[in-house]
Amino acid sequence: MKCDSAGLQVLSREECMHLLATSPIGRIVFTDRALPAVQPVNFHLRGEDIVIRTTTGSKLAAATRRTVVAFEADDFDPDTRTGWSVTVVGHARAVDDPAEIAGLAALPLLPWAPGARDHFIVIVAEQVSGRRVHPG
Amino acid sequence: MKCDSAGLQVLSREECMHLLATSPIGRIVFTDRALPAVQPVNFHLRGEDIVIRTTTGSKLAAATRRTVVAFEADDFDPDTRTGWSVTVVGHARAVDDPAEIAGLAALPLLPWAPGARDHFIVIVAEQVSGRRVHPG
Q1: What does the alpha-carbon distance between residue A22 and residue B68 come to, in Å, rounded to a whole number?
Q2: What is the ipTM of this complex?
Q3: Chain B nearest C-alpha distance from A97 (Å)
Q4: What span, in angstroms and rounded, lies between the C-alpha atoms of B16 and B84?
Q5: For residue range A13-66, what is the model confidence (pLDDT) as tens digits?
Q6: Which superkingdom does the taxonomy of this entry point to (chains A, B) (predicted)?
Q7: Is there a contact between B29 and B41 (Cβ–Cβ < 8 Å)?
Q8: Are A28 and A38 in contact (CB under 8 A)?
């Protein structure tokens, strides 16, 4: 078992992708008016791409157009003090092609909040890192 | 009930602080070598200050010294598609004063990972925002 300097188990890219696929919610990390910003979103993993559905005029849509973002998912159990986290860093892009939008709209990715959400953001998993914490 | 343009309920600062106090884990959002970075941490809420315990030489310790960070906590139920998230933005500072370190070391804030963690980071809650999602 490979551990980092903080004593956390280092997960392989394959393990990270497997864990990401089990998580209904992740957090997209970006910059909003020069300040760090974070927003939880539900998502779908299409291969190694993270697909997010939002509204066209949203702050998230504006802030993630052609930029590098981080995306994080985790699952921790406070009782046993165990759990994992996975972070992906990569370029985000707004999907503009109607054929690709039609394909993404058919994914099992339903908005949680009310209102139309026909704007898709795809994050390409360029850097993938993950850690697992075991009891200290 | 006040809602934002995305149809999410807007939480008051008081509600946000109450929810933060119920959460054992949050995510600190910062910049690491000009890239967005995010790391889950356990934390303690001391008044409205977020207290985090880490190792002296950690990336987190280096990256959050005298800078503005975001801190996010949330709780979602994928079955009912409901939940909340709270985000704090504020200045982070490393605690250097021995008396303050002694006070923080007495808090109910135990590291989850193995190893000594005697470096404390305090985030001052300058901007606080929160949202609750109800079924769409």
Answers
A1: 32
A2: 0.92
A3: 24
A4: 9
A5: 999 999 999 999 999 999 988 899 999 999 999 999 999 998 887 888 888 888
A6: Bacteria
A7: no
A8: yes
Position B115 pLDDT exceeds 80: no
Q: Indicate the SS3 state at residue B22.
A: coil
Name the residue in chain A with its Cα closest to that of B71. Answer: A38
* Calculated CA dihedral for residues B67, B127, A81, A131, nearest 10 degrees: -50
AA letter at A41: V
Answer whether B29 sits within 8 Å of A40, measured CB to CB.
no
Chain B: residue nearest A42 by CA? Answer: B78
Say which residues have a Cβ less than 8 Å from residue A29's Cβ, sequence separation at least 6: A36, A37, A38, A69, A70, A71, A72, B29, B36, B37, B38, B70
Which segments of A22-68 does DSSP mark as H helices, in order? 59-63
| CB nearest B40 (choices: A69, A74, A115) | A74
- B84-102: pLDDT as tens digits: 999 999 999 999 999 999 9
| A36–B29 C-beta distance less than 8 A | yes
Per CATH, the number for B9-133 is 2.30.110.10
Which positions ≥6 away from A38 have C-beta within 8 Å? A27, A28, A29, A30, B27, B29, B38, B70, B72, B87
Q: Tally Cβ neighbours within 10 Å of residue B64.
A: 27
Please give, rounded to a whole number of angstroms, the shortest distance from the CA of A18 to a CA of chain B.
18
Token digits of residue A44:
């779908």
Is A6 within 8 Å of A17 (Cβ atoms)?
Answer: no
Cα A116 from chain centroid (whole Å): 21
